[in-house]
Fold:
Amino acid sequence: MTAPHTPAPAAAPRAPVAVTRVDGSPATPGDLAGLALYNYGHFTTLRIEQGRVRGLGLHLRRLADDCRTLFGTDPHTVTGLTDGVRAALRRVARAHEAPVTVRVTVCAPDTTLEGPGTAAPTALLSTRPAPAAQAPPLRLTTATYVRELPEVKHTGLLGTLRLRADVRRRGFDDALLLDREGHVLEGTTWNICFWDGARLLWPRGRCLPGVTARLLRDAAAGAGVTVGDRAVTRAGLGALRGAFATNAAFGVRPVASVDEVTFAPDPDVAALTATLTARYADVPADLL
Structure:
């Protein structure tokens, strides 16, 4: 039995999110209606710093691929969409001196219960301040949940946000998702990798191919860290020595524990954490 976790304190009230069109004008109720009522769309989240974005090409490719998957759009339409997004991101960069996290959401304004209509998909942008400092290690608990169409970063977030709210009421920071056989997949809105003492391992399974995860994997290999893929099970977590969550907003974040398994901050883990954090920070960012 593990000791009960103390519920986290209530978060401070958050300011309303401002949403704009690709051209920079405020989004109208008509722009948002299809997304709000039917929640059919996809997105990518990236961090802009000094007019640059790590993995910009990967983020734009994700938008293009997911647009074809959800909307069946032709290459010309997709190219116009991604070109417009890049121009919009340049405007955001000019308007913000400090680092900013941007979510680009693609939806069809004429979506109904019948599905998306004939109108070309459009992109909406929302911004929030980027995390300024390294957050403390995550305390996770596992949950059996496989996202629908997990290879796509879609807007169907009900399941994962419900899980996150539930585990936070129980004193954890977030949930680690498992399939029905107990295999580790991903976090609610982030990827995860593990260290077994010799290799940095990404769990095999159906999950989102994260941009930050790919950048970190390449950066770690370039630093001489052995990387690989392996099926990781809930039962096998105790044999691993470290774990790291990754996404574009916070980069690399250590994991302190998963359920009753604690990843002790020994010198080797601390050194690896410093290496991964530094190598990710050194990933060349693309000019908008």
In short: The mean pLDDT is 93.
